[in-house]
């Protein structure tokens, strides 16, 4: 790509840093495989090389500064990264896309155009006002960092021979910590605060605004996320074969897709379970969090005689976690770690590992907070998913940027999407 501009504002430097993260991620894929589609619901990898730059160009044009179109057909082609819902899979072929040289040339020119404008831009005191330069830059940065995580989900599904491990991504060496059974921590009745007020002056996405105070009854919650060893007990007990643990919709999905275990698990003829990491197949680490879909997590919770927490329960249980806890996040690792590996990442109620190491499913559908207003420059970011098919996740994974570990951040995915770096913990009233 082009030479980085001299930063004139901290947010400009953050945007440059975010570019380095996504550039390094694309470099993991051997060039001849950039037209692969490792997850059928998603675009081909090459799309995202153009999309990240097109998004910035389309967002900044006439809002931050004029950016005359130099390839309007590519601005349009790469504009939208929203994936289909429930079975509407893309049918395009590699030949339908521009050449890799053309896509990279477009991306390079888009960056060069943006950087030349930012080099001369004079930032004022707009704060986080709607449409202010500061807000637009935050949106561009976090949009890119979100893709840095979801692209990792895609690349995880690529066959190992299609990838090259970057320097520092050494083979996984795992010594089991033998977490054993997970104790439950009591959380007394009290208030949970969802979202934040616009007048707080902090950046957030549209679905984070509209502070809502919820009174939560006392409950118990797992001290740690559910581990691979615990989820294996569910499998060994026939959890994927027992109809009673699954909703009608989840059972129909499981049967139609032939789901019998988490997507990254496989089993040898001798019964040994393996886990597919980004760059290797390893013996299943028993004390890592089990990454599963919402449907699988819900079935496990019913088998265990418990439930998934609501968003308010999770938020209540997370009170008191240090502002910058230790943990496995911000691209520090390609893999999870033991669920008890960050003892100072703990809430006021003794609940550990709530931020990083794996998103955590809740039972709450993704809905607007009171007074929701869509960003006028990104109308569909949240509103397109208030559809009763997406569930809120909280916390963050090893591939989640630190800026998105703020307590108000709300992630969401469909119940049957298995590829998220997401685990769960259970609650009991």
Summarize the structure.
The protein is α+β, with helices and mostly antiparallel strands. 29% of the residues lie in helices and 11% in strands. Residues 17-150 form the DinB-like domain.
Notes on the protein architecture:
The strands form four sheets. Strands 10-9-8-11 form a four-stranded mixed beta sheet. The mean pLDDT is 93. The protein contains ten helices and twelve strands. The protein starts with 9 loop residues before the first helix and ends with a strand. A hairpin with a 4-residue loop joins β6 (273-276) and β7 (281-283). It is an alpha+beta fold and 429 residues long. The chain has two domains: 10-162, Four Helix Bundle (Hemerythrin (Met), subunit A); 184-428, Alpha-Beta Complex (paralog of FGE (formylglycine-generating enzyme)). The protein has helices spanning 10-26, 45-60, 72-77, 100-120, 133-156, 228-236, 248-257, 294-303, 311-317, 380-383; strands at 184-187, 190-194, 212-216, 219-222, 265-267, 273-276, 281-283, 359-365, 390-394, 411-414, 422-423, 427-428.
Using the coordinates above, name the CATH class of the largest domain.
Alpha Beta
Topology as a string of helices (H) and strands (E):
HHHHHEEEEHHEEEHHEHEEEE
Rg, rounded, reads 22 Å
Can you list the strand order of the major beta sheet?
Answer: 10-9-8-11
Cα distance spanning the termini = 54 Å
Largest sheet: 4 strands, mixed
**Level of helix content?**
25-40%
Rounded mean pLDDT score: 93
How many separate domains?
Answer: 2
Oligomeric state, counting identical vs distinct chains? single chain
Strand content: 5-15%
Note the total helix count: 10
- What would CATH call the architecture of the largest domain? Alpha-Beta Complex
Low-confidence stretches: none
Number-wise, the strands total 12
**Outline:** globular
Q: What structural class do the secondary elements suggest?
A: alpha+beta
